[in-house]
Amino acid sequence: MTILVTGARGNVGRRVLQRLYAAGHSLRASGRNPAELDVPEGVETVALDLNDPETFVPALAGVSKVLLYAEPDGIVQFLDEAEKAGVESIVLLSSNTVALPGADEDPLAHHHKVVEEAVVASGLTYTILRPGAFMSNAFGWSYSLQAGDTIDQVFPEAQVAPVHEDDIADVAVVALTEKTLQDQVVDLTGPESLTFRQELEIVGEVLGRKLVVNGLTREEGEAQMSNFVPPPVLTSLLNQWEAAVGVTADTSATAERITGKPARTFRQWVEEHAAFLA
Ligand SMILES: NC(=O)c1ccc[n+]([C@@H]2O[C@H](COP(=O)([O-])OP(=O)(O)OC[C@H]3O[C@@H](n4cnc5c(N)ncnc54)[C@H](OP(=O)(O)O)[C@@H]3O)[C@@H](O)[C@H]2O)c1
């Protein structure tokens, strides 16, 4: 009864792997280049590119459950091979963008929606996790924090309810190891709605620095972020943030209800990652 953890190098997959390992499960970790994976001792690694069907059969042999990252190209073949291999259930890391207004025209939402629909149509048991913005997006400020105290931010008054990757991983582990979340869609948010400006205030307080937020126009933000964010994703993000200016982000107690622990706060995330942020 091996659990395949795709995205084992990712913010969520890495944490899921650590938790399942600590609980003694039989595990296989995958990445497009398994040599890059840093896994606990004794965990098997395998090459899996979700866009390359030739890699599917060896990765799925003997697997009963999969933590799946959302990659639309190849998803139908992947799920076919999963069924043939005897996989019982899929836990999909999707995104709350699927449920936002305008999702049908949004490239980021479309990316996840295609995979969600394929998973539901596959007939396999599933859990779809739909987190909102990850707290680790704050690493996007690292470069500016290393350069000085003035931080550029487009739409600084946009509100998000960032979710801690440990909470996503805790919920994913419940989905992979218990039956309570079978055939459910699980929306996950952090515990509080914060503007980007408030997030940066918290970063400054934890780092003991007086940060100045330099608000950028959409065009300025687009020019700056296009250096490291692909164009369709960038448009999607800017649209989301523009729509979130002055709007309290929805928060839910779902993570707490499932894990039995209060959702971790953004301040806690910053305290844990302060050494890597700046
Ligand atoms: N950041 C957010 O605010 C946010 C919010 C909601 C949902 N999400 C979704 O969460 C996911 C990102 O999660 P994360 O932060 O944990 O990831 P991450 O740290 O950015 O890592 C990305 C992972 O995706 C894997 N991957 C990429 N292309 C792949 C492919 N073709 N085949 C197999 N694996 C592939 C990479 O594996 P290798 O490079 O090792 O192959 C890596 O492990 C995305 O689907 C994103 O849309 C993110």
Account of the 3D structure:
The protein has about 280 residues and is of the alpha/beta class. It folds into two domains: about 130 residues, Rossmann fold (3-Layer(aba) Sandwich); about 110 residues, NAD(P)-binding Rossmann-like Domain (Rossmann fold, 3-Layer(aba) Sandwich). It contains eleven helices and eleven strands. A seven-stranded parallel sheet has the order 3-2-1-4-5-6-9, with helices on both faces. Strands 7-11 form a two-stranded parallel sheet. Helix 8 packs antiparallel against helix 9. The longest helix is centred in the middle third of the chain and has 15 residues. The mean pLDDT is about 95. The protein binds NADP nicotinamide-adenine-dinucleotide phosphate (NAP). InterPro entries: Ergot_Alk_Oxidoreductase (IPR051604), NAD(P)-bd_dom (IPR016040), NAD(P)-bd_dom_sf (IPR036291).
Layout of strands and helices, then pairs:
Blueprint: E1 2-5, H1 11-22, E2 27-31, E3 44-47, H2 56-60, E4 63-69, H3 75-85, E5 89-93, H4 107-121, E6 125-131, H5 142-147, E7 150-154, E8 159-160, H6 165-177, E9 184-188, E10 194-195, H7 196-207, E11 212-216, H8 218-225, H9 231-243, H10 254-259, H11 266-277
Parallel strand pairs: 1-2, 1-4, 2-3, 4-5, 5-6, 6-9, 7-11
Antiparallel strand pairs: 8-10
Bound molecules: NADP nicotinamide-adenine-dinucleotide phosphate.
The site of NADP nicotinamide-adenine-dinucleotide phosphate has 23 residues, from α1.
Domain NAD(P)-binding: 7-178
Organism: Lentzea guizhouensis
Protein name: NAD(P)-binding domain-containing protein
